[in-house]
Design goal:
Low-confidence stretches: 33-71, 268-278
Strand content: 25-35%
């Protein structure tokens, strides 16, 4: 495993050697307890493990989920997502599918790393680390893993032992139920958050889908893109289906960082997708 300035290439190693390499590198990652928020309320874990089902209500307090022997805390979510979640945060121990516009996945990674959480990116060669930095992410907390031709879920399973947020691909395939149950149980046991960027896996707790609604700065087919408006939809077990439109705007001269704002209805009316504008 490596930080963002290098990529760990496991190609050419047999499966047992790859897993051994990942385990050794996982041992060097500082414990997640050092990074978990200390000011969140806690609850007592039940004697028997129960399915992880977030409670749906309008309580603004962060969601706390428990499994056997461990109290799970939360991980911060970027504004567009936080406003659609019932408790404004992501519960540890959950599995999430993220589809659509890449800006949402980048925002999730940036928000987690900026808060001090370790993030593992498995098989994500097209993800822009520059974009993560522009969103305010901490690249020192991001670890890149190239699984090569081997199953990326093997690497994900190891990373769940010591990394707060694990983002992996499954190459568009369907994960068998038995494999999914084992991986999700490991995720809950260690209190991590697992994100799949493609494919399908049974037992997913939350689905986040975002599509590009329009671009700003394009006038009569030309101009520099200054903003992008996304339509974001969230649904899952114990989470009502909610949607919202949010605009990601580039900083003006003298400002720092990208910013998310709810998309005003009057601005949406006059904008068109980039393909239509060209």
């Amino acid at each position: 495993m490596a930080t963002a300035d290098a990529i760990e290439d496991l190609t050419g190693l047999d499966k047992s050697t790859q897993l051994d390499v990942l385990r050794r590198r996982m041992a060097t990652v500082p414990g997640r307890g050092d990074h978990a928020p200390a000011d969140l309320p806690t609850i007592t874990a039940p004697d028997r493990a129960k399915p992880l089902v977030p409670v749906v209500d309008d309580d603004p307090e962060p969601l706390i989920a428990a499994v056997r022997g461990k109290t799970l805390r939360t991980m911060p979510a970027p504004r567009p997502l936080a406003e659609l979640l019932p408790r404004r945060a992501l519960a540890r121990g959950t599995a999430i599918t993220v589809t659509g516009a890449g800006s949402m996945l980048i925002a999730l990674i940036a928000e987690a790393s900026a808060a001090g959480h370790h993030v593992a990116l498995i098989g994500q060669p097209r993800l822009s680390l520059l974009a993560v930095h522009e969103h305010g992410g901490n690249l020192a907390k991001i670890h890149l893993v190239d699984p090569g031709s081997t199953d990326p879920l093997d690497a994900a399973s190891i990373c769940l032992d010591g990394v707060d947020l694990v983002v992996t691909t499954v190459h568009g395939r369907d994960v068998p139920p038995t494999r999914a149950r084992a991986l999700l149980a490991r995720n809950r046991r260690h209190g991590s958050i697992l994100i799949l960027t493609d494919g399908h896996m049974p037992g997913i707790d939350l689905t986040i889908a975002s599509t590009v609604h329009s671009y700003g700065g394009i006038e009569q087919g030309r101009g520099r893109i200054r903003s992008i408006t996304l339509e974001v939809a969230v649904h899952g077990r114990g989470t009502q289906h909610r949607t919202g439109r949010y605009t990601l705007t580039a900083p003006s001269f003298g400002e720092q960082g990208l910013r998310w704002t709810p998309a005003p209805a009057d601005q949406l009316a006059g904008r068109r997708p980039l393909a239509a504008a060209q």
